[in-house]
Amino acid sequence: MKKIFMMCLLGLNFVSCDVDIMADESNSTKPRSPQSKPRDLTQPLSGKINGKLWDAVSGKVEQGYEEGTFRVTVYNQQSEDVCSILFSGEPMLLFGMQDKTGMDYLSLSHNVTMAYQVDGGSMNVIAQEGYTDVLAIDDTTVEIELKAFSDADHSVGGRISLKRCDN
Question: For the whole prediction, is pTM greater than 0.85?
Answer without folding.
Answer: no
